[in-house]
Amino acid sequence: GIQVEQSPPDLILQEGANSTLRCNFSDSVNNLQWFHQNPWGQLINLFYIPSGTKQNGRLSATTVATERYSLLYISSSQTTDSGVYFCAVNDYKLSFGAGTTVTVRA
Amino acid sequence: DAEITQSPRHKITETGRQVTLACHQTWNHNNMFWYRQDLGHGLRLIHYSYGVQDTNKGEVSDGYSVSRSNTEDLPLTLESAASSQTSVYFCASRESSGNTIYFGEGSWLTVV
Fold it and tell me: B42, A94: Cβ pair inside 8 Å?
């Protein structure tokens, strides 16, 4: 199956800082999604982004499918951004990376 | 609003007992999935279904079974619970032609 690697594994930010999370995948994909798991365990869809760039408020994502990576940008981070960010790619199902744990300190 | 719900949300059971986790979605999605989440492993696929009477094994299916008798439900059964099955279980669904997958809120299972 497709291998998905996320970096960094952990990220500590001061409120207001910007950050970039990376997702590398081992094969071509036609579906890539970013999720945020909040501290209560809930998984929230952030982006469906098999290619190109999308923005949603302070979050944006870029996928370069030909180079097999995707980036998630968090700008002006807030404490509510804390949690685990997962990248997932799919052929017939979703294969998840191990996630990046983000802690935003006030 | 359409939604996907799991029950029970928390359960403690003993080794060797049969346990069933329920998953119900009201979107009429054909595709349904069960994942488990363990520290350091992200989410791993247990079983999935593309429609009624269709079930398929995922990467960590040993010790688990599912059945799909209608579109809305995909119950996950642990035939004989083991301590290694202590985990958080997530159910998910997606339209057949859809791109976005939606997750339930998770079921925390402890096997003692």
Answer: no
Structure token pair of residue A22: 């990376």
The answer on pLDDT for B2 being more than 80 is: no
Residue contact B42–A48, C-beta within 8 A: no
Query: Is the predicted pLDDT of residue A27 greater than 90, yes or no?
Result: no
Cα dist from A32 to A88, B26, B57, B111, whole Å: 6, 24, 22, 34
CA–CA separation, B80 and A3 (whole Å): 31
Q: A9, A70 in Cβ contact below 8 A? A: no
Give the Cα-Cα-Cα angle B22, B1, B88 (nearest 5 degrees): 30
Give the model's pLDDT for residue A95.
Answer: 86
Residue of B99, B100, B107 for testing the chain A interface, max A β-carbons within 10 Å: B99
List the Cα angle B21/B24/B26 in 5-degree steps: 170
Pick B48's closest partner by Cβ from A50, A93, A95: A93
pLDDT tens sequence across B11-62: 999 999 999 999 999 989 999 999 999 987 789 999 999 999 999 999 899 9
Q: How far apart are CA B58 and CA B72, in angstroms?
A: 20
CA distances from A64 to A30, A106, B50 (A): 12, 33, 29
Contact of B90 with chain A, judged by CB distance below 8 Å, is answered with: yes
The token duo for A38 is 């909040």
Token reading at B58: 């995922």
